[in-house]
Structure formats: structure tokens, C-alpha cells
Design brief:
Structural class: alpha/beta
Number of domains: 3
Number of helices: 13
Shape: flat
Radius of gyration: 20 Å
Low-confidence stretches: 46-51
Mean pLDDT: 79
Strand order of the largest sheet: 1-2-3-4-7
Order of helices and strands: HHEEEHEHEEEHHHHHHHHH
Number of strands: 7
Helix content: 40-55%
């Protein structure tokens, strides 16, 4: 089941034509003419019945004066590895290509570098390596580092991606400031969501610095404001209470860590899977407030 963070990113992409156009240009390496119309399509495909065959967003690109699209792009947001996607992505592409009789691309937005690398691996379709499908992946290296306040206001969606991709880099503080500046230009509900998104994806040092700056303005400590991110943090804790078995606690811990914006590589997952129920209980408590994954395990 998609996480709430996944749904937030999908909603950002679905609701902003500018952002969809920008990602398409990053993916194709070409400018999309201003007169080209972008139209979203139902993400379900009539030829394929199972419910898992549903893309995050499908956009058709229709040149001026034309009735049929010249290109279809299936946008997918991928926060973690999911082996099922290597089965469904080729199906998305093949079905849309047949339905609309035009080129179709699968474009995967993967903010975490290790997930982006995994998504970009060729998909062997015939078991012999003779027929392969290669998704187009937008990873951190394609996301610009947005630090200019005016640019941030012009492109709040791209600025949010910048924070997600670079919020734990040496530019964390500056991209965080840009993200907060962009949030101030939005209406109240979106401003709360974007502000929470910024703090959620910054490293500890940058987050503390911006929290101090916010505290000076607000006269009190910053706390998550949007319902979405309050629910994100609570989701992992609730799962931990509801499940008594180690497997359930492990899942709760993974949900909590991913909700807080951490990306779990194979090394971390191996250590988590080796923990018993009592150890997982302690890790769930620690995960609620840790600043880096290095702080998760007390060696």
C-alpha cells in the first residue's frame, strides 16, 4: 500500500502542470513547447484487470491543433524498492503504446540515490536479455539545487523536490530556507504541508537551525501543522502498538522511518531483520526522534 508521503508527492505532481512539464523535460532532455497541451488520463488500463496495474499519473502530450497525443508519459513515484514494479512498468508502457498508437515512456521519480539506481536497472522481458525495458529515472542528480528565493516561489513543486533530494547534503540549510520561502507564497493549507515537508526532509543540523529561525518569528517552537504529516509520524507508532509480533514491529519501524524521510538501504534492513521483538520496541521509540540513521543503533 502506498505511504502517505508517496501520496503527497503524487498529488503535487498531479495538481501542477508546470511541475509535470518540468519533469517531462528532464526525462526527455528536450523542451516541451508551450503550446503543447498536457492532459491527464485515468491511471487504470481497461485491458488489464488486476488492481495493482494502476500508475501514479498518466499524462498525454498533445501538439497544438492535434487531437491525438504525440507522447504518453507514465509518471511513477518510487520511495523504496518494490520488485513488483519490474513486472508492472513494462505492462504500463506496452498497453498505453497500443491504446494511443504513439510512443510511451515510464518516468520514475526516485529521490533516494540507491532507489534511483535500482529503478534504472534494465528489465529483462524475455529471460534471455534479448528484449529489455529501461525506465527513465529522475534521481537526485537530475533535481536542481534550488536556493534562490525568487526561483523557489516561481516553482514551489520543484523546490519541494530539491529539499527532498538535497535536504541531507551540504546544501541542506540553503535549500531548506528556499523551501520555507516558497511555502510562504502558498495558501494556508498548502503552506502548512510544504513547511512540514521541508522540515521532514532536512538533516538534523539544518532542521535545528531553521527551527530556531522559525521560533524567533513564531515566538514558540515549531511543530508539524498539517494533518498529513501529523498522521505520517503517528502511523508508525500506531502500528507498533497494534502488532505484538516481531514481524509487525519490524513493519511498524520501517513505516515510521520512511515516514520521517529516511531511506533504508540493504545494510540497515539486514540489521533491522536481525533484531528481536524487544530490540524492535526500543528502536521504534528511538526512531521517533533520531536525526540520522547512524543514531538508530547504539553500538
Amino acid at each position: 500500500m502506498p505511504s502517505q508521503l508517496h501520496e503527497v508527492l503524487v498529488a503535487m505532481l498531479r495538481e501542477s502542470e508546470t511541475m509535470a512539464r518540468t519533469l517531462a523535460e528532464w526525462a526527455t532532455g528536450q523542451s516541451i513547447p508551450a503550446e503543447t497541451q498536457l492532459r491527464t488520463r485515468d491511471q487504470n488500463y481497461s485491458e488489464i484487470q488486476p488492481p495493482e496495474y494502476r500508475a501514479d499519473l498518466v499524462v498525454e502530450f498533445v501538439p497544438r491543433g492535434a487531437e491525438q497525443p504525440s507522447l504518453m508519459i507514465i509518471f511513477e513515484v518510487q520511495l523504496t524498492r518494490d520488485s513488483d514494479k519490474r513486472r508492472t512498468w513494462p505492462a504500463y508502457q506496452a498497453v498505453l503504446r497500443a491504446q494511443y498508437r504513439c510512443p510511451a515512456m515510464v518516468v520514475v521519480l526516485a529521490p533516494a540515490p540507491e532507489v534511483a539506481q535500482w529503478c534504472a536497472e534494465p528489465i529483462d522481458l524475455d529471460g534471455r536479455g534479448m528484449s529489455v525495458m529501461r525506465p527513465t529515472v529522475i534521481g537526485p542528480s537530475l533535481v536542481p539545487v534550488v536556493t534562490d528565493p525568487e526561483e523557489a516561489v516561481r516553482t514551489p513543486g520543484v523546490t519541494a523536490l530539491s529539499v527532498i533530494a538535497h535536504g541531507r547534503s551540504c546544501d541542506a540549510l540553503e535549500v531548506g530556507r528556499a523551501g520555507l520561502h516558497a511555502a510562504q507564497s502558498l495558501d494556508e493549507a498548502d503552506a502548512q504541508l510544504y513547511t512540514d515537508l521541508v522540515f521532514h526532509h532536512l538533516d538534523g543540523a539544518a532542521r535545528r537551525a531553521l527551527e530556531r529561525e522559525m521560533a524567533l518569528k513564531l515566538k514558540n517552537k515549531y511543530e508539524y501543522q498539517s494533518i498529513t504529516f501529523r498522521r505520517l509520524i503517528a502511523e508508525g507508532k500506531a502500528l507498533g502498538k497494534a502488532e505484538g509480533k516481531a514481524e509487525g514491529k519490524l513493519r511498524a519501524l520501517e513505516v515510521l522511518l520512511e515516514a520521517r524521510g529516511f531511506h533504508l538501504d540493504a545494510r540497515i534492513r539486514e540489521r533491522l531483520e536481525a533484531s528481536d521483538a524487544d530490540e524492535l520496541d526500543a528502536l521504534v521509540v528511538r526512531a521517533a526522534s533520531l536525526e540520522t540513521l547512524d543514531d538508530l543503533f547504539e553500538d
